[in-house]
Design goal:
Blueprint (H helix, E strand, L loop, with lengths): L3 H25 L1 H27 L4 H19 L2
Helix pairs in contact: 1-2, 1-3, 2-3
Length: 81
């Protein structure tokens, strides 16, 4: 059984790690910090457009949350290296 509250809560918790990792990278500055700032904005715009398209074409909020969690997991992996 799908629990939207639990999925949303997990997304919020998992996102905190990405926020932490991004803030560290931004604080170091330089080329890597600038690149992270640019990719962060581009990723947010792309994810919002993807979510909107999913919902417009009949997708469920559960699908959107699951996809956001995939993005968060990928960013956690990328930033942890």
């Amino acid at each position: 059984m799908y629990n939207p509250f639990l999925s949303s809560l997990m997304l919020a918790i998992e996102s905190q790690r990405v926020i932490e990792l991004r803030l560290v990278r931004l604080a170091w500055g330089g080329r890597e910090g600038l690149a992270e700032a640019q990719s962060m904005i581009a990723e947010k715009v792309d994810a919002a457009a993807e979510a909107m398209a999913t919902l417009m074409f009949g997708g469920s909020p559960e699908t959107v949350i699951a996809r956001y969690r995939e993005h968060v997991a990928a960013n956690t992996k990328r930033l942890s290296i």
